[in-house]
Amino acid sequence: MKANAMSNFEIVAREDFSDVTYLLEVRHPLMAKAAKPGQFVIVMLNEHGERIPLTIADFDQKKGTITLVIQAVGKTTKQMQQECKVGTSLYGMVGPMGIPSPVSHAKKVICVGGGLGVAPIFPQARGFKEAGAYVIAVLGFRSKDLVFWEDKFRSCCDELILCTNDGSAGMKGFVTDGIKVALAGHPDVEEVVAIGPPVMMKACAEATRAAKIKTMVSVNPIMVDGTGMCGGCRVKVGNEVKFACVDGPDFDGHLVDFDDLMVRLQRYTKVEKDAHERWSESCRMTKQVGPSALHALKRGGQNELLELPDPFEDAPGG
Amino acid sequence: MAKKKTIRSIPQERTPMREQDPQVRAKNFEEVACGYSLEDALRESERCLQCPDEPCIAGCPVGINIPGFIQKIGEKNFRGAYDILTDTNLLPSICGRVCPQENQCEGVCTVGDSLEAVAIGRLERFVGDTALKEGWVNIPYIEPNRFKVGIVGSGPAGMACAADMAKAGCDVTVYEAFHEPGGVLKYGIPDFRLPNTVIDAEINNLKKFGVKFECNTLVGRLFTIEQMLDEMGYHAVFVGVGAGYPTMLNVPGDSLNGVLSANEMLTRCNLMRGRDFPNFDTPMPIGKRVAVVGAGNTAMDAMRVSLRLGAEKVYCIYRRSRTEAPARAEEVHHAEQEGVEFHWLTNPVAVLDDGNGNVRGMRCVRMELGEPDESGRRRPVAVAGSEFDFDTDLIIYAIGTNANPIMGQTSKLKLNKWGYIGADENLATSVAGVFAGGDIVTGAATVIQAMGAGRKAARGMKAYLGIRDAGLPYVGGDGGTLFGIDTRERNFARVRVA
């Protein structure tokens, strides 16, 4: 059932930020028109692929494109890094999913992005700017080599605090240190929005809890359908269980049970490694001895599991 | 002229259908029930009395002329039988497999008063499968009209509605959020009950009718129902998105790794082909000792899938007794044959942790049946002090679903207090031109009920659009009102704003 007149999900641009982080710009005029900050897509690389959720990093109505920033951490994201060249197409891309981030009328906000979370925080920062807010961006990376989109943020933010773990660019420290600096200069900040690895979002929520500053986070748990049907993405928010795909993905950071979220993200970690190793090995073997050996290898280990890659899992900047 | 059949002259025993041996089939995903052979079908067709009352027709949600198609089988006119079936049901191979016939046509069969009822479902499947094998398609003469109809959701309700609207001459497009059409038939019902090849064949038949399928399209988010009507040129829209949102038990330990919904496990296995891992990339959660909570058809599917994935033990945990189990009797029987251990009158109270966030076991309490509750079933009551623990490493919840919230979030459709879409007796919603049916209106039900709803909505839609259909009394008419719209005015927008 390949027929899809809606779009063929062609990749029209690609940019490699580092060895592990890459950007894909995918043609989908209808989605570019519909997308709002905070929403995500589910992507399938090929017919045999898994469905992986990716937050929309940018959308361009004029060009009719959706931008995704991806970190190669699991089998699928590494395979995409290898195969998604300009001119090729994804097998499937559905969205925009999730409730758009409520761009509030806050007058002064801090937008925090850690590692890969820097990409999806961008449309929010731009959204707040367009709504007339004073926007302070706090961006965290592991080191200078991994920094991306600094210019893009400068163009839509009033202030930018860049943090690196080793101090090779901007200030030395975590995004939470950046938040402290921002709050010291602006005690009247009304809202903080943080996107990044769960451990980073947890730290951000803790950093603002005492001052009772509204802090929104965007969670990215394991999903299958993305339409509320499987319940795999359930998260504890306060006393309630919410499905990130249709009730979120944005929730009040002071209420999210991050420990629970982190444990649930580890569901397939052990087997993900095996699957990934098998795949890397098969790539090497295809190069060396051709596809028949690859076939034999793929047949092995029928009962092992593979992780649905969480692109934020090992993201730097936390 | 054949001599009149009597209850004494027909074959007394119902013709059995060959099944894979339980021990063998519990290890594969091939179809359990192998279907009737030609001889089986001819013999079973003789058991229909062709009685004048035809209670079976009234018992069928889509009103198939059952004695008619069975008679054609008896005459070895299988194409004729197919023609009669497809007059009312375009998906006989699917319905023959998944309808709960014992509560419908077969439940009211005259033969069933004294003997076992005629195996109508098996005969229907035989005809449908013969047609697929022979490549028969009945494409009626369709005179195109100017109407464009959008269908949201490609499950049984959407497919049935699409078929009827296409037959009426409308330009029909079906939108599906997944990458393949079929809805619950694809993601939910496993191959050993309904092979994907059968679903795809039926979908291809719809395409031959001119029905277009657009996958990877999440209506509500990519575009709204209002946009379909206002900007995209649709004259009417049918919403058949299913109920969706799985219920969790709400006991301590619910969020541990190793607890998942039947929807998730079945989708990974069926639609995503996780059972073919690593040829397909989607991983399957695999347990050695699997506990499935619930005793509906979905629960039976989850248990039988678990066995096929290599579970050593599969337990069914259900708080009522076997009599109250909502699954079809045949499904319970099949699960039992394959080795599922049933624990009736047992209710989970907690999921137990291994200390690392994974499931270690389950704590349950014994139940006994008390007074009947609002559903008419005897209410299960916990037996004090009867708690016990057992080991399990995978727990699957198959305890029903709630309304999917996406339509409510993105449209002006009026919902009822449970979040399902409100619809009148014509399945018209609060927004003019928008009809809804299936699980998103009624809550979780069966495939054939959803198909019935799809067809009912199609009738309402035709009346709304003013399409005169042979056999369809035109409600409304000049000067009348149709779903609150003055038909002379034909000003649908005015009503929609209200």
Structure at a glance:
The complex is a heterodimer of chains A (318) and B (498). Chain A is α/β, with parallel strands linked by helices.
Structure description:
Chain A has 318 residues and is an alpha/beta fold. In chain A, 31% of the residues lie in helices and 26% in strands. Chain A has helices at 29-34, 75-83, 118-130, 150-156, 175-185, 198-209, 244-247, 258-265, 269-289, 291-299; strands spanning 11-16, 21-27, 40-44, 52-60, 65-71, 92-97, 108-114, 134-141, 159-164, 171-172, 191-195, 214-218, 234-237, 240-243, 250-252. Chain A has a 7-stranded mixed beta sheet with strand order 10-9-8-7-11-12-15, with helices on both faces. In chain A, strands 1-2-5-4-3-6 form a 6-stranded antiparallel beta sheet. Chain A starts with 10 loop residues before the first strand and ends in a 19-residue tail after the last helix. By secondary structure, chain B is an alpha/beta fold. Chain B has 19 helices and 16 strands. Chain B has helices spanning 22-25, 38-45, 55-59, 66-74, 78-88, 92-98, 111-114, 120-134, 156-167, 184-187, 196-208, 225-230, 262-269, 297-308, 329-338, 406-410, 439-442, 447-465, 492-497, and strands spanning 148-152, 171-175, 212-214, 236-239, 259-261, 289-293, 313-317, 341-343, 346-353, 359-372, 378-382, 388-391, 394-397, 434-436, 481-482, 485-486. Chain B has a 5-stranded parallel beta sheet. In chain B, a hairpin with a 5-residue loop joins strand 10 and strand 11 (378-382). Chain B is globular and about 65 Å long. The relative contact order of chain B is 0.11. Mean pLDDT of chain B is 87; it is low at 470-498. The chains are: A alpha/beta (318), B alpha/beta (498). Chains A and B meet through helix 1, strand 6, helix 8 and helix 9 of A and strand 3 and helix 13 of B.
